[in-house]
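Troubleshooting: if your tokenizer reports a length mismatch, compare against these two reference records.
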Amino acid sequence: YTHTHTHTHILIFLTASLIGMCTYILIFLMASLIRMYVYYTHTHRHILIFLMASLIGTDSGIGHELAKYLDSLGFTVFAGVLSATGPGAKSLKETCSERLSILQLDITISKREEFELWAVINNAGILGFIADGELLPMSSYKQCMDVNFFGPVEISKMFLPLLRKSKGRIINVSSLAGGIPMPRFAAYGASKAALSMFSGVMRQELSMWGIKVAVLHPSGFKTSIGGNPEDWEKEEQMILGSLAPDVKNDYGEDYIHNLRMFLGEMSSVCSSDLSPVFSDVLHALLAERPKGLYTPGKNSYTFLLVFCYFPLWFYDFFMSKIMGNPHMPHALRTAERKKQVIH
């Protein structure tokens, strides 16, 4: 009896294991089939990406790398640039498949009607010089708004008729600086905040058409948007030349010069791994229910939580410790020395 009982238990165990293994394999195969269906259903749709690679003469920005990534997955990509003969556009032509096309920003209505458009990704952006808001000339504010906000708005409106037909997607790449106030990001942050708010409103309004709108707030990624030391030198000279004498005297040229150190430090702690951004963009493109907000990057979501749920005085203190400028303006240094002499 004991021997028969043992064999029965072994048989039950083996049967249960076999059923479990078959169930696991079946689930795995079903998941694979679903992924294959999603892949082959969506990757042959047309994706329009707007980037600034040709403007800044580089091939290392998020938009540029994103175009190559989506091309490698089999998407039909239209990379919208300011100059189809620029170095960024040339690099894309050399490294991507024939599915990727370079388009000028002046796309005509007739060209728009030639294909079914699934998604528009607005990634074009400029950072400018990182400086106190008072120091930035109005031209910097206007340029940031033109490229970072008005550009995506115009592109989105241009292609909404096609997106309504396909019930497609709009994906806007904003920034963490567009979700929380950050010192020395007055022009850039304001333009990205406008883009984030526009994205939220469009998400609500376009839902009745079946269009999904998502916005990304990436943080801490090393791209070409920050420029290089030569660019910083030009920006610094432009700022010094635009300041009123009293403002220049109060801040001091050394204070403005030291702002370049912040740009270098910021670049040194950023990650060159853009895979978190790519992963979120892919989810926004293919998910049945994409998120309205994605926060790729180290501590991006943490910063948003601190800003939203803690008192503002704590948030300001928090940011002063992380992004505070150790160099004081000339007028404040002078006043501090006078206090020390008196005491």
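Reference record two:
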Amino acid sequence: LGMNAIHGYNGRAAVSVSKHGLWGLTKALAKEFGAKGVTTNAVSPGPIAGERDDEAAHHHIASMVSRVPVGRLGQPHEVAAVVGMLVSEGGAFVNGQMIQVNGGAET
């Protein structure tokens, strides 16, 4: 299970290329090891709430929330719930996927 995002950002081409490489690796590993009962997936979290408590952080958070269709930051437990599902029996037939946990935002 990997954590990844695939959205490209201006001035960060190297980051975008490396993240797309991880997405390709996820898909390739899913095909290579799926027959052996090993699933490979990636989780792509969007803007997630954390412990930020300065004025610059508050401005940045407001900007992030404005780009999230559900109108709020995600919570760490929401990402953890998806990870938990993927590594449980409930995720046994999920393979080669990137699950976006982002409230509809681009990640």
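Descriptive notes for reference record two:
- The chain has three helices and three strands.
- The two ends are 17 Å apart (CA to CA).
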